[in-house]
Amino acid sequence: MIVRSETHEDIAAIHVVEEVAFGQSAEAQLVDDLRVAGDAIFSLVAVDDGTIVGHVLFSRMKAPFPALALAPVAVLPEYRRKGFASRLIRQGIAHSEAAGWRGIFVLGDPAFYRRFGLDAGKASGFISPYAGPHLMVLPLGGNELLTDTGVIEHAPAFAKLG
Description:
Blueprint: E1 2-5, H1 11-22, H2 26-37, E2 40-48, E3 51-62, E4 67-75, H3 84-98, E5 103-107, H4 110-113, H5 120-123, E6 126-127, E7 135-139, E8 150-151, E9 153-154
Parallel strand pairs: 4-5, 6-8
Antiparallel strand pairs: 1-2, 2-3, 3-4, 3-9, 5-7
Protein name: GCN5 family acetyltransferase
GO molecular function, one term: acyltransferase activity, transferring groups other than amino-acyl groups
InterPro entries: Acyl_CoA_acyltransferase, GNAT_dom
């Protein structure tokens, strides 16, 4: 398995991975909408034997510090529980930190995302339509966030997910 940045030639395969992984087209459309709006900062794919089997996207957010949203993360069902999602996320975190971002927010299962250092407690002071136990944040560039309160806004495309 390799993890690399997406290329223009990967877009159709990424769309298929998103649709199959989620069993619907909403997340694939989210990826397309984030790209069109210019809110997609970077995207990684997991490739196994020449086939794209996983994808992760990091997008622009409004926050009191330079922050990204991690979403969606998709892996084809037959490749789950084999480390593909973890490798995509870890490489995405490393890329984000190297690029100077100060935090990553995700909305998801705390039991899964805790292993990467994302923390719902650290996100609890932020005002967001997604606030709650599934909103987590990971400080980058140190152990603490520049602030632990304020308003955060995901890119407008996220509102279409409901």
